[in-house]
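Why do we care about 3D structure at all? Because function follows from shape, and shape follows, mostly, from sequence. That is the central idea of this module. The next example makes it concrete: a single protein chain, its amino acid sequence, and then its structure expressed as tokens.
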Amino acid sequence: FPVRGFDLDAGRTLQLNAGTSPIDHLPGPALADMLARGFRAETSADSLLGADIILICVPTPLDAARQPDLGAVRQAMADAARSIAPGGLIVLESTVYPGATAELAVPALRAVGRTPGQDVFLAYSPERENPGDTVHRGATIPRVVGAEDSLTQGLVAAFYRAAGYPVVPVGSLAGAEAVKLIENAFRLVNIAFANEVQTVLSGMGIDVQEALAAAATKPFGFMPFQPGPGVGGHCIPVDPLYLSWQARRVGLATPLIDTADAINHAAPSVTVHRLATALGGIPLDRARVLVVGLAYKPGVEDMRESPAFPIIAELARRGATLAWHDAHVRYAPVFPDAPAPRRLLHLDALAGQFDAALIVTDHPGVDYAALAEALPLVADARGVYARLGIRRASVRPV
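And the structure:
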């Protein structure tokens, strides 16, 4: 297929067209191959005119009240409705609540005289990427596809199969929209369970990582999830709230999702409290703390919803002197709720500089053994030392 990209970020489109990948998990050779096959990125919505197939992959975050913000989808649907060729296919891939595709697309299409299922076809297929995963990526991941009629279902299935994907048909738009929310609500709930288990077992003096690792040896009926300082990224802390928000709109309740969200939302504050306890006689307002990792997960640069930011904000509010290190983050981010902490480009000569390091993201490539040797306290919020089998007196799980 001849492919064009449309993005409002001019810097990103310039990078792509120059052959420079703006994200770690899109390798340079793959981008070079795309460009050689004719791909170009543009910043004008006119680039969509006459397209036979338009895939909408825009952000769907939460607003300040932690409710769905679908402004980008609404604008993208309006652009697609004006631009799609007669008989064309529009596929929404952004995460939305059940019913949102039809709720947003049908009025946009009818406003320009288009009728879904007749002269334009509308489908939903949630993205299922796992940034940083070198095994499950691209066309190795089945595509769920949903539509309101068999003709559209056949069109969208044929498109993704042509791109090499296994296809899983779902009989409605809302059913396909629900799939992504189920997947990430499952993770939210189980991470909250792991965080609760950590609180209970550590309070009993039990080695949490040892217990979790032993439980994971059961070959059936158990799937291990790790406790941590909070959940991040565009999926786990966001998607389940789209489901709970829509449930409330139709008079239903999601108490398990709501409780899990509350547990995970509180995890950054709990982590700071545990760090303060581990510091012993050093109060936080006199402590020098190095935060290791700003990205929301290992091996990527993505900082969306990262627990590092509320952790840094609370540490700053309580008077700690702060620095941060993350080799994957290419620029110094803005810390809206805290004075900008110092950035350390390299983890060397740390002795005497800090009272503690707090591991928020367990990136590969960090010399964790040397870190524990250099500092009097390493507060491990990710269980990295237990997984690596490194034992040091300075390491404390938090």
